[in-house]
Amino acid sequence: MHPALAGDLSRLPELLQDACDFAAGELTGLAERPVAATGRAPGRAPLPAEGAGAEAALTRFAERWAPGFSGSAGPRYLGFVTGGATPASVAGDWLTSALDQNLSGAGGSWAGELERETVDWLRDLFGLGDAHGGAFVTGATMSNTVGLAIAREWIGERLGVDVSRQGAAALGPVDVYSGSPHSSITKAMSVLGIGRDRLRPVPLLPGGREAVDVGALEAALAGRDGRPAIVVANAGTVNTVDFDDLRAIAALKERYGFWLHVDAAFGAFAALSPEHAALVDGLDAADSVCVDLHKWLNVPYDAAVQFTRRPDLQVAVFHNASPYLGLPTGEPDFLHLTPENSRRLRALPAWFSLVAYGRAGHREIVERNVALARRLGAGIDALPGLRLLAPVRLNVVCFTLAGDPSQERVDALARAVAASGEAYVTPTVYGGVPGLRAAFSNWRTTQADTDRVLEALAAAAG
């Protein structure tokens, strides 16, 4: 054994404790460290010829790289829609690495059954029925890709084409209808051979809404003469957290042939709050559903889940035909359900967090984040230098500069906020106007954090 490996093995408990102590120190100071790193990264060093051991690696990381890492796990990182990681989920994530289970198949481990239990819990959390099967994937992009892949296979079934064997070209053109699709939808369409240009935008409701006009959607479907299509509905748009009328869209399936995929990356969590649960009424009628867990479930990157009513078609797309992997009979191994053969136990951090905090704990996170988003929105609305671009519907505040919100001025505002170290927000364009988004999904965020963000925005806006 290499001397560095032998030395690390002999000191394994101490090394793990050192890493734990370092992580604890980083997390303890998270609320006060700069939220975003704005300096230049160090130059790239050459590959070490001889290993220095894990202790030296930790020291080198702490000195050279850790100071430039963002505070994205912290309470005032409001960029994208990024949750942090609850204490229980961090413990689960560490054990995922330490136990290093191979989720390709059963392999003498109960890990696959733990994932199935976790999927069952999540299905219940979001109000889905037993007809929906599911599996863990890396994020919303992969969840949407899996859902559309199954949809593509369904269209083949309707047209008498085995897409998994004959290829997407055998289908002919496949149309995807959506009002405000996330960018990952067109990325998935590209990956799957459907083609980005096959997206068919549907008019939105008036009044600055991002929700689809169901009447316009029906008119578009009626003109297809029965040819099957894919409809992507939104349960929470990225700019304003607007929701399509899922129940009304699902009702159209009785008259028109389409696969209903719902992108509920973070909007599905509205189901936890009695005040907002009606927003996802009809989610159970979807043929496939995307939910991103490293957003509002607050588990570490990367983790999402996908659900579908047609696991048989999912197996047709993703099964791996190899003698050493086994055939997908009965309840198939997860390698037959997702693009990956190599799968880490992503379910364990979610399992830990669900056991530790339950439905009630995660509901509290959702409801607190919504209340804080409203607080920030009200504060922005009262500032003379800023204005809201849309109502605060759930957990995202979409706003811009008053007066002339040019791209240059808005970009400068975002840089100034990041440079303050107090907060981090990400850019967007809404209704043709450059703006910024503050997304609340972190379990740590408090009223005091929200007030600090508002003060940073006020100072940066002048």
UniProtKB/TrEMBL annotation:
Name the cofactor(s). pyridoxal 5'-phosphate
Is Lyase among the key words of this record? yes
Give the transmembrane ranges.
Answer: none
User: Which Gene3D superfamilies does the UniProt entry name for this protein?
Assistant: 3.90.1150.170, Aspartate Aminotransferase, domain 1 (3.90.1150.10), Type I PLP-dependent aspartate aminotransferase-like (Major domain) (3.40.640.10)
The record's listing under PROSITE patterns reads: DDC_GAD_HDC_YDC
Which one Pfam family would you cite for this protein? Answer: Pyridoxal_deC
Q: Which UniProt keywords apply?
A: Decarboxylase, Lyase, Pyridoxal phosphate
> What is the superkingdom listed in this entry's lineage?
Bacteria
Task: Give the PANTHER family listed for this entry.
Answer: GROUP II PYRIDOXAL-5-PHOSPHATE DECARBOXYLASE, MIP05841P
The record's family statement is: Belongs to the group II decarboxylase family.
Q: What is this protein called?
A: Pyridoxal-dependent decarboxylase
Species per Swiss-Prot/TrEMBL record:
Streptomyces albidocamelliae
